[in-house]
Amino acid sequence: MGARNFPPTSPWLERLVALAFVLLLNLAEPGLSGADGSRVKDLAMFAGARDNQLVGYGLVVGLAGDGDKNSVFTLQSIANSLQRYGINVPASTLNTKNVAAVMVTADIPAFKKSGARIDVVVSAIGDAKSLQGGVLLQTPLRGADGKDYAVAQGPLSIGGLSAGPEGAGGATVQKNHPTVGQIVNGALVEREIPAEIIHNNQLELLLREADFTSSARMAEAINHIFPNIATAIDSGTVRVQHPTDLSGSLVDFMARLEAIEVQPDVPARIVINERTGTIVATARIRISSCAVSHGNLTITVASTLDVSQPNAFSQTGNTEVVPRTNTQVNEQKGSLVPLPDLPSIEKVASALNALGVTPRDMMSIFQAMKQAGALHAELVLH
């Protein structure tokens, strides 16, 4: 057969092949894949750009009889509040059934300027039955340094209700928690909390989940976009040098940093909440070959009341109520089920579901596997 001539490739096709080759190389690098990666802003925060907590003490009025039952601090607070308006009334002569003493809490984000608004949470500290329909009087909110940074005031929204008289028999109907409410945009910022995010021309990224692998990958991903400016200091900190020759402001540079995508490392971990029966497992858990047997023991105790009566035409004896208790024990048969090496979370879930166990049984099985050394994952119990 004669030699075959292939048509020459066009320049645009060569560029397309080169671009595809570079893309494959980038996707092959660990921690730099953007297909299922997370943004830096979702994994870390800039040091210094943190929230601050505020707290204040105030009064909620207009409670229609659901307020405090003449608490000493509530009476004194009402008297002090009235005195500011030139009304001098002895605290012992007041009635607090329409007023409740409350604590007001809020988180103020960094860079909130004077005049901005933030949400507040209002919680009763006395014996008020409900804050429904109440209005918070002007309450200064202080920081940990003792300075006032915001002022809260306005009508409460509790998202629930409490109705009906108190007493046995379930006459009271309650939905949600009526003694805690919130005021959306209820506080006015009066003073900005100073925040410093750059030191010696350097920024620090604080990982929300400290991990050495994730920290190294984040520094590598940043250096892939901005060469030689990022260094992983420890498992929770990545230090970034601000390029002086970069066009644009510091805010533009920070925005570009936040948009970089990183593939974080997720540890092998199983979180168990025994109160709610919730189990959450990451994809990296592994189970070595083992055998599992788990049986259920059910004990039933039933109490009933029998009536004992004297014989017919008996002149003596009384009718008595006699309690009777019946106890039964039922233990289900269990079998030893062998489990092979399970290298993925899907196979682990399928194997445990095949046993037909409940979530609480799974908790016991996971704990026993951990003690036996067959579960290669961190076990967190709540």
Can you describe what's shown?
It contains seven helices and 23 strands. By secondary structure, the protein is α+β, with helices and mostly antiparallel strands. It folds into three domains: 29-48 and 196-262, Gyrase A, domain 2; 52-163 and 174-189, no CATH class; 270-304 and 322-381, no CATH class. Strands 3-4-5-10-7-6 form a six-stranded antiparallel barrel. The chain has a four-stranded antiparallel β-sheet with strand order 2-11-13-12. Strand 15 and strand 16 (278-281) form a beta hairpin.
Low-pLDDT runs of 5+ residues are: 1-9, 11-35
Binned, the helix content reads: 10-25%
Strand order of the largest sheet: 3-4-5-10-7-6
Mean pLDDT: 81
**Count of distinct strands:** 23
Strand content: 25-35%
Radius of gyration using CA atoms only? 34 Å
Distance between the termini: 76 Å
Question: Main traits of this protein?
Answer:
3 domains; 4-stranded antiparallel beta sheet; 7 helices; 23 strands; Gyrase A, domain 2; alpha+beta; 382 residues
In short:
This protein has 382 residues and is α+β, with helices and mostly antiparallel strands.
Layout of helices and strands, plus pairs?
Blueprint: H1 11-28, E1 38-39, H2 40-43, E2 44-46, E3 52-61, H3 72-83, E4 99-108, E5 117-124, E6 135-142, E7 148-155, E8 161-163, E9 173-175, E10 180-189, E11 202-207, H4 212-225, E12 230-234, E13 237-241, H5 250-259, E14 261-262, E15 269-273, E16 278-281, E17 286-287, E18 290-292, E19 297-308, E20 320-331, E21 337-339, H6 345-354, H7 359-372, E22 375-376, E23 378-381
Parallel strand pairs: 15-23
Antiparallel strand pairs: 1-14, 2-11, 3-4, 3-6, 4-5, 5-10, 6-7, 7-10, 8-9, 11-13, 12-13, 15-16, 17-22, 18-21, 19-20
